[in-house]
Amino acid sequence: MNKYDVKISNRLKRTEGQLKGILKMIADEKECKDVVTQLSAVRSSIDRVMGLIVAENLVDCVKTDMSTGISSEESIQQAIDLLVKSR
To answer: Known InterPro entries for this protein (predicted)?
Structure first.
């Protein structure tokens, strides 16, 4: 079972606010460089959230996978693959 604490939710809410800000920037025809800078910040924020989720839930995920016959090594590799694939 995955556990998501309040800090993950808060980070995602901040990211949501950033995205809304980017939409406003686009509507206001702000400079491309400024929009891209904010998009980069959103990407970094999402990467941090993904890392937190994997780090905080890895043990539970491995236990769950092992109960279904997946080895701990394979389960950990799957988590790594998810992180690497997203970049």
So the answer is: Metal_Tscrpt_repr (IPR003735), Metal_Tscrpt_repr_sf (IPR038390)
